[in-house]
Amino acid sequence: MSRKILVTSALPYANGSIHLGHLVEYIQTDIWVRYQKMAGNECWYVCADDTHGTPIMLRAEKEGITPEQLIERVHGEHARDFAGFGVGFDNYYTTHSPETRDCANDIYGKLKAAGLIEVRTIEQYYDPLKQLFLPDRFIKGECPKCHAKDQYGDNCEVCGAAYAPTDLIEPYSAVSGAKPELRNSEHYFFKLSDPRCEAFLRQYTSCGSLQNEAANKMQEWLGAPGDNKLTDWDISRDAPYFGFEIPDAPGKYFYVWLDAPIGYMGSFKNLCARNGLDFNEWFKPESTTELYHFIGKDILYFHALFWPAELAHAGYRTPTKIFAHGFLTVDGAKMSKSRGTFITAESFLNSGLNAEWLRYYFAAKLSATMEDIDLNFDDFVARVNADLVGKYVNIASRSAGFIAKRFNGQLAPADASLPAIRAIQEAAPRIAALYEAREFAKAVREIMALTDGANQYVDSVKPWELAKQEGRESELHAACSNALNLFRLLSIMLKPILPLVAGKVEKFLNIAPLAWSDTQDLLAAGHVINTYEHLMTRVDPKSIEKLIEANREFLAPAPEQSSPQRHAEHQQKEVLAAPEEAALCSIDDFMKVDLRIARIANAEHVDGADKLIRLTLDIGDGRPRQVFAGIKAAYDPATLIGRLTVMVANLAPRKMKFGLSEGMVLASSDPTSKTPGLFLLSPDAGAEPGMRVK
Fold first, then answer.
1. Reported pTM
2. pLDDT tens digits for range 291-321
3. Buried b (16+ CB within 10 A) or exposed e, 123-159
4. pLDDT digit string (tens) for 60-77?
5. DSSP class of residue 180?
6. Computed from CA positions of residues 430, 427, 390, 81, in that sequence, does the dihedral angle turn out positive or negative?
7. What is the H or E stretch that residue 21 is in?
8. By C-alpha distance, which of 451, 462, 492 is closest to 398?
9. Calculated CA dihedral for residues 395, 401, 406, 410, nearest 10 degrees
10. Helix axis angle, 20-38 relative to 355-363, nearest 10°?
11. Which of 421, 90, 423, 401 is nearest to 269 (CA)?
């Protein structure tokens, strides 16, 4: 029976370009949606630009245009970039729409009628130079929880804590750099701390709507039963502000985070009007349809607490599931403008790189967890060239020409009993389940193993040799026809990831759009294919170098450039600068180091080395690491085997005289002592290999 599914991705803010970090989410969502459609489900994918707030107003003012003109231009840029990466929204809309306004007013009115809206006079930060109340994101300072510097006024990007701007330590205006003043203002609050909201959220966040790690985080924020940690949510902002004015409250506007999730509803309502769908069927409390949100883990608080509480108490259905994902790192570190690894979607496309290379690479890394994924360019080149060109496309390129030249493009009967064909057909339900569960990396591994089997078949029949031998035309015909049937089956399984290539395959094979159920069928004898054209080229490593260099030149600010925000940050760093001898590092620097619990699987002396012991370390990912540690004077290798320690897992491999060292173990010593000792670090009981040390 066909399911009815509505899917959303988080709304990109209309104040910046789409970059590769954003695309992790949209590509992940698009793959899942495409699989659902191939499986025969009614699945709609909607999104919109998040268009309101002070940043939009200030940027438009700076550019000398209206906010409406700015968001219209950015909408076109975003739509272009998403289309370039094959992200197939059924509706890509805007939150600055009559549909979103109507939904926001409706939800607000129902929450107010339920006694969940309260008006209070609060102290709020005001920029005396710019003469406006500062939104949370335009106030920066030190996180009150983990003390990370330069954090925003609503939540910390380092520890994930949510707080009020007045909780920040040493706040400053990110607009002018001025010290903000506290002034009184009347604000509207959604009473999230109300016992009704607390009771609902305790049930909702523990009913399977969230991943386990997300549910655990929610329980931290909720607190123990009887110890409600929820705080009421400020949903209003003062003029001047670009957004929707609150009904019956002149000069007061809905905070952008109030109407941003409501933008999902607005976009879908717009789609419903164009496609004859019943909006109420999808959003009524007793709806049998399914609603899924794909989001980054940094906005989990808003989506898993505020949003479902709003919906439930305004009389709407709540999300079936909320899928949170991790961040993108590049070569093991945060994206960086100075390193040229803060890469925009537009620059990637303009460089001539194939967008589906990135779709495949991300898919090969993505799982159903909130773990970060890494874009390593060397790995990117090797994986795409080996898997997509060397394995997958190679099957068709080695077979199609013979069918066209020798057999007028007509296929011979396929051998349904062929082990490689049967293996793919038997794996189809298993791979479908992996797509459903968002375990794309596991699905890719299975598909590539099946692709290896298909290539082994082609290698065994050697059509290029059969073509040289007289009287073996029927064998050649059968071999190439079987190969193209294998290629078609693999194309079905890769279609959610490679929709553009799949479209070319459908044209080449002269077939209807591939559906998941087609995995159990084969092309009939006599079926005529079209002329084969190259489906994909190899990645040239030089193009990656050009891409990185182009982004470094384009994005790195010149030394003489300045802005109020950069000036404010510079002042903050001057005030907080430590003496040079203290050698302090920032929290960002520390977070670059990936410390993992490791089990010493083996330890042995190194021939010819006075200080080294060769360690084989297990960090729980199935790939042992070899590390050479200078601890021979302190330890007998036999005493180390089976012991847990801590290793730096993302240290660049170092080629040594005795072999490749793939990390570093941590030890302490006292160099001032007359008899300095070495002490290998050991974690507490209960630690397991692979756990991250934070």
1. 0.77
2. 999 999 999 999 999 999 999 999 999 999 9
3. ebbbbeebebbbbbbbbbbbbebeebbbbbbbbbebe
4. 999 999 999 999 999 999
5. P
6. negative
7. helix 20-38
8. 462
9. 70
10. 80
11. 90
